[in-house]
Amino acid sequence: MRIVKLSPQSLAFPSPEGALRDPNGLLAIGGDLTAPRLLAAYERGIFPWYSPGEAILWWSPDPRAVLFPAEFHLNRSLKRFLRHDPFRITLNHDFAAVIAACAHRPDEGTWIGPEVQRAYQHLHRLGYAHSVEVWQDDQLVGGMYGVAQGALFCGESMFSRVTNASKCALMAFCRHFAAYGGELIDCQVLNAHTARLGAREIPRRQFLQQLSTLQRRPLAPAGWEPQVISPQPAEPPSPVN
């Protein structure tokens, strides 16, 4: 196994099965963040992750962390918190603000540099990348963003400025996504936060099979229109006569 250097003249990616075991999932280096290349990567279960100023690295880890919307874990403390309806949660109201907030981590560092932000904002304008915003008294206090692949959503990052904001963003999105036919959320690599919310690991081969099937099942366009998704309940699209 070796890291493949991408050709600037081609959008082809190597098979994810050839990714390194250590570091887990590293597959290729180089290329760019143009919309065609990013979409070609997501279509194959590959995503970029690298430090600003360094070469772009492309990954497809094994196992893969995923969240089935119906398996979102709503614990007792979050149930009590939700009784007060502390947030208004929207979809695709301010993508630029969400990705900028995900990038602003003074104590942790971030891979979401200006180049990455511009690339995903372009995907958003093209209708592929989407954001969830959590508002408290008209202030943006949490959110998440990612890339749609039919009935599968590739989650990229989330942020929280107040307690439970990112949890509520994911919970509201799971309900809305499922109501419109969404079946699986890609969490990439499992961490303690997503595991507590119900994410689990599956073999990469299984994830790629799911991806191949679900990307052929696009959500109804109304599911991605800018809208309030909480506290207003999600409603599935009307049946076509």
TrEMBL record:
<dbReference type="InterPro" id="IPR042221">
    <property type="entry name" value="Leu/Phe-tRNA_Trfase_N"/>
</dbReference>
<dbReference type="GO" id="GO:0005737">
    <property type="term" value="C:cytoplasm"/>
</dbReference>
<comment type="function">
    <text>Functions in the N-end rule pathway of protein degradation where it conjugates Leu, Phe and, less efficiently, Met from aminoacyl-tRNAs to the N-termini of proteins containing an N-terminal arginine or lysine.</text>
</comment>
<dbReference type="InterPro" id="IPR016181">
    <property type="entry name" value="Acyl_CoA_acyltransferase"/>
</dbReference>
<protein>
    <recommendedName>
        <fullName>Leucyl/phenylalanyl-tRNA--protein transferase</fullName>
        <ecNumber>2.3.2.6</ecNumber>
    </recommendedName>
</protein>
<dbReference type="InterPro" id="IPR042203">
    <property type="entry name" value="Leu/Phe-tRNA_Trfase_C"/>
</dbReference>
<keyword id="KW-0012">Acyltransferase</keyword>
<comment type="similarity">
    <text>Belongs to the L/F-transferase family.</text>
</comment>
<dbReference type="InterPro" id="IPR004616">
    <property type="entry name" value="Leu/Phe-tRNA_Trfase"/>
</dbReference>
<feature type="region of interest" description="Disordered">
    <location>
        <begin position="222"/>
        <end position="241"/>
    </location>
</feature>
<dbReference type="GO" id="GO:0030163">
    <property type="term" value="P:protein catabolic process"/>
</dbReference>
<dbReference type="Pfam" id="PF03588">
    <property type="entry name" value="Leu_Phe_trans"/>
</dbReference>
<keyword id="KW-0808">Transferase</keyword>
<keyword id="KW-0963">Cytoplasm</keyword>
<dbReference type="GO" id="GO:0008914">
    <property type="term" value="F:leucyl-tRNA--protein transferase activity"/>
</dbReference>
